[in-house]
Give the backbone structure.
Amino acid sequence: MRRLTILILMICCAHLGAQDSFFSLSDATEEAESEEKPIVLIFSGSDWCKPCIALKKTILETNQFQDFSKKLVMLHLDFPYKKTNRLSKKQTQHNEDLAEKFNPQGQFPKVILINAQQERLGEVVYQKDMEVDRFIKEIQTILQ
């Protein structure tokens, strides 16, 4: 019984976490249209790209950015290297298709803002030791 309870809690927690960000452009676009929010595309290599890992840890996972991101639709496009972290073929193809369209140079990390019509609004260039305030300010500048 205890194992069943733990399994149910894990499934519920995973579902709640998935509501904070999206993994498909169609879902993100639907949310962006209904909520009138911009979409933030985050291209990353979660298990090999040191700047991507730093961006996640020092910016994206902070309480300050989490509060700010409620005004945005977050779309994470990961390109992991390790076999244990590989995505499904469908998710990999989805991410590669969006990389061809929005990140053809294959730069990581890459943070691009688009609208619900998938028109590019701008990009934030993450730099080593960038602070959350500056990252948020750059997004706000693009959205003005």
